[in-house]
Amino acid sequence: MALEHAILVSLLEQPASGYELARRFERSIGRFWTATHQQIYRVLKRMEADGWITAEEIGQDGRPDKRSWSVAPAGRSALVTWLRAPVQPETVRHELAVKIRGAAFDDAAGRAALVAEVERYRATHEATLARYLTGERRDFPDADPPDAQRALQHVVLRGGIAYERMVLAWLDDVLTTLRTLEN
Amino acid sequence: MALEHAILVSLLEQPASGYELARRFERSIGRFWTATHQQIYRVLKRMEADGWITAEEIGQDGRPDKRSWSVAPAGRSALVTWLRAPVQPETVRHELAVKIRGAAFDDAAGRAALVAEVERYRATHEATLARYLTGERRDFPDADPPDAQRALQHVVLRGGIAYERMVLAWLDDVLTTLRTLEN
DNA sequence: TCCTGCTATGCAACTCGTTGCATAGCAAGA
DNA sequence: TCTTGCTATGCAACGAGTTGCATAGCAGGA
Asked: Tens digits of per-residue pLDDT, B43-87?
């Protein structure tokens, strides 16, 4: 219900083609909202029909043409309306937590496999944290960024960093707990 | 794709009716997996057809009959198969983060409204943390719980507590940032 | 007495998200 | 030369999740 609005924010920060949006959703925006290129193209079409965004055709030689999308006034006012509506409680899907509780109904071999899986999972989160920290040093070197847009981007990034640190600490707790059960 | 498995774990921990499951999903399981009663009833029907669970009819006077579900051997082996498969990367939907970045494109009045909204949101998370801590004191008073099932439930609960603490700290950061922008 | 809320289950319609596939040309490496 | 991978867009089908509504009896308070 809010993919439209995530796209509006991203396009206001910087106009983009569907393909570029999909890559942003893999990177920075994917930190708090995931979407595939299919969803994005479908929603872009609907948003164009609603007059929320307008396209500029860009011919490129050697590559397929692309359509660069910008936010129209109607899109901007739709965004503002949504911004001022109450925040919906977040919906959570932590598959790993289900598996951890499920491990009580598997045997020692299954729990050993889960330990390996948690270690793999931990490595991906460690890599994500490293990526965030690199991005922070690159994009926010000043202690006090001046404009609102950058300050808000930074505080959201700090949220991502805090989340990853919390996850890593918890996964260590999980590993300790799982290993204790093997004795 | 994994609601079935969350239900299997819950029913292995304790058999339940669809209605009771729905309440568990509002409470403890909802910490890491949300589901409405509609989803649950539909999935239970499919799981019964697949022979994963069996029902025991319980007649109650003064109340509608209920069907108490237990996990059949086929369900248990389906769970074990799933437990040993790789964990899918979690899909995130943080509407609030979208709104925070979107606030750069609203005016001072809109940002003031967002501050109020973040405060309301913060209060719900503070209440959730309090609920978790109360539950922890009630269900895990010992330093070292003996059996695997309880130890695993506890480590998942500690994850929920760590998450809520992280969110509260981040929301304070967000409020400070938003208020700085007003000057 | 009426209204609200709880237990208990379910249908129907709709939207959202996922997966597989298709096109098409260029660049770079094996 | 062949294959892989990247840019760039899209269709079709399916599965998952959401919303509104319906039934039904009991308990408790206004």
From this structure: 999 999 999 999 988 766 555 678 899 999 999 999 999 999 999
User: What is the per-residue pLDDT across A21-41, written as a single tens digit (0 to 9) for each?
Assistant: 999 998 888 888 989 999 999
Number of domains comprising chain A: 2
Please name the nucleotide lying closest to A21, CA to C1'.
D8
Which of A27, A55, A83 is the last residue before a domain boundary? A83
What is the per-residue pLDDT across B118-146, written as a single tens digit (0 to 9) for each? 999 999 999 999 999 999 999 999 876 67
Chain D nucleotides covered by protein, CB below 7 Å: 7-12, 15-20, 24-27
Half-sphere exposure of B72 (CA within 13 A, CB side): 12
Q: Please report the number of interchain residue pairs, chain A to chain B, with beta-carbon separation below 8 angstroms.
A: 204
Same-domain check for residues A77 and A140: no
Mutation site for B-interface testing, chosen from A94, A120, A158, A168 by largest number of B Cβ within 10 Å: A94
CATH number of the structural domain spanning residue B72: 1.10.10.10
**Which domain does A56 fall in, by range?**
3-83
Q: Which residues, at least 6 apart from B132, have a Cβ–Cβ distance to it below 8 Å?
A: B31, B157, B160, B161, B164
CB contact under 8 A, B102 and A79: yes
Q: Are residues A101 and A72 in the same domain?
A: no
- The ipTM value here is 0.92
φ and ψ at residue A59, rounded to 5 degrees: -80, 135
